Structures
1.
Amino acid sequence: MEHGKVELYHGSGQIVEFPEIRKTKYTKDFSWGFYCTKSYEQAYRWAGRKHGQGIVNVYSYVENEKLNIKKFENMCDEWLDFIAECRIGKVHEFDIVEGPMADDTIWNFVNDFLNHNISRSVFWEYAKFKHPTHQISFHSIRALECLEYERSESVNDDTME
């Protein structure tokens, strides 16, 4: 059964017609990968915050059930442990990981938890009033093949020369 197409967004400083997985100095929530979100606002913020001239890249995504996909429906202990492991550089076998994306405030709590400054129960006490946004990360060439580039939109049109 073919799933419907979902529109995904990637905030960047450039047009990304051909997404790729880059190994960087710092690992992200779900390790190295190409990150997108279902939230246009989130991608808009990513693009605008990190770059003077931001671009929101738009893709259509069709899930391939043959891939190894991990989905976290919400923030839970398994999600927290998974992020903790990715953050210290452990790699995983998933093609695609989908789940909540913590905002900067929750990140401070995650870091406090990772540094053993707060306990797990205190983390959940702090985090329970926060509403994370969505992220989906692609970790293999086969995963990237599920994405089809549609278009790019400039974030700060008013500042363009």
2.
Amino acid sequence: MENDIEYKRLIWHSRRGMLELDVLMLPFVKEVYPSLPEEDQARYRQLIECEDNDLFAWFMQRSRPEDPELARIIDLILQRVQPG
């Protein structure tokens, strides 16, 4: 039960109100997050604490996170929509 509540919070916090972020983050958290290894789940939880402006720049590949942990989860999300 506690994990279900935590997961619903995660979905709620993945809603950013910016279409470009929502179309990447919401499907990822709903379809991929549950099957991720714990380390990548922790990276995603760290990612959703970031500012929308930073997320937008990273997802649009205008810049890269300095933190390699964040860079990894950004890459996983982008690979989902840009395979190959």
